[in-house]
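Reopening this one. Same input as before:
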Amino acid sequence: MNPDRLPGLLLAALLLIVISFVGLQTDADSDLWGNVRFGQDILAARSIPEKDPYSFTSDRRWVNHEWLAEVLFAVAYDSAGSAGLIGLRWALVAGMYLVVWRSLRRAGVFRPLAVGLLLVTSAGTYAQLVMVRPQLFSVFFFALLLALMNGVARGRTRLVFWVPALFAVWANLHGGWIVGAGILGLWSACSAAAGSITWRTAAAGIVLALLGSLATPYGLELWRLLWDTVGIGRADIAEWDPLVRWPAQFVGWGLTVSLLVVVWRRHARAATLWLLPALAMGLLAFRVVRLEGFFTLATVILLAPWFAGLGPQRLPLSRPPTCAELAAVGSLCLVGVVGVEFAVLRNAGCIAIEGPGRVFRSAPEAEAITFLRDNPIQGRLLTYFDYGHMAIWHLAPKLRVSYDGRRETVYSEAVQKAHLRFYAGTPDAGYAAALKADYIWLPLRLPVVGELKRVGWVEIFRGPRSVVFAQEEGPYAQPAPWTGPRCFPGP
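Same output, byte for byte:
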């Protein structure tokens, strides 16, 4: 082997290990059960339902803005089980990395720096990529959009005609297309002001994006839904919290901010207009943590031309390595790559509900699910929204839920607020009687649990994380302790 190639091989090994680590474990999002089930329903009926069959409190037309993602999830799961879903996730993650790499290299970024920027991308997007969820499509399509925007800035203005097709597909996959439309609008204005594109091209891109987003089964109704629901503050969803409540994600956000500082220090006023879109995403990501991945992608891809020429074209060795050094470094790289790949393969068929040493707040214990599933329990189940999709998967049609993770797509604002007040125990537990609920399944940590016992609800199951109430005692069989792995679909 040519010793001069050793630094490049070390970088490649490091990159492979880091990217493999991103796929080391695939976690289950609390909505995954519903995402797969709803996709299966669409495939079975060959149509998108407008009326929800799973809830007894749904009171509005079902605007399923993720229907295409759910169909793809269902196809993957029906074809290969959980391994199919993991494979789909890997395809989207690998596609995102490929788009970022090609964008950097086409911009003239030297390979060592491009590898470093790809590592920053891994840190910034990890939280958005670890779960099987429709948001995976938004991360991939956002990267595609940014790469397309760079191509237009390089003079390939005809690429703007791909914008409506991109948004037409994206709008049927996930609501994250609205973030793409926002960044496209801001970038177009800044690019036109800087003179890299004409105002006509800028306007055309924005108009074509909006027209493309209308190509859904809902048209303008989807716009109305997003207008009513997308905002900065959503206290009932943890991922809409500010970054300060997620200290671990400061790493990716801080690394991305450092890239903005580097560009500003080197190019100052010349880069001001180009920094604005990424800076705006950074401020939004600080306020809403789920936008961190979009912030990192916007910074790395949109500012790729400003990284061109930085750093060495290759990493030279200070001296030729000895045979012993080559053997040691090669062995360490091999052990690292093989070890990570072995761990990836070991988890290939498991979408984890619980991981080693940690418990997800949104996941109830397996015993609660087996208790509800195996006992003669049927009717109306007043449930916590994070439990709703699991209940739909395991317990429908014998039990219908009162609330689940679809929130505003099937429930009016009045129903949503009533549930949140009920969980908080204010003003009392009378909401359960008003709904004529037969059973109640809630996390133990909710304030209303004590109030329910006070007003006469009978506790028929209690686990370490959740409790099930009924209106009266009964001959319910208690489940045996769960000893198996917690993988989707569970229990």
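So the earlier flakiness isn't reproducible anymore. For the record, The longest helix spans residues 67-106.
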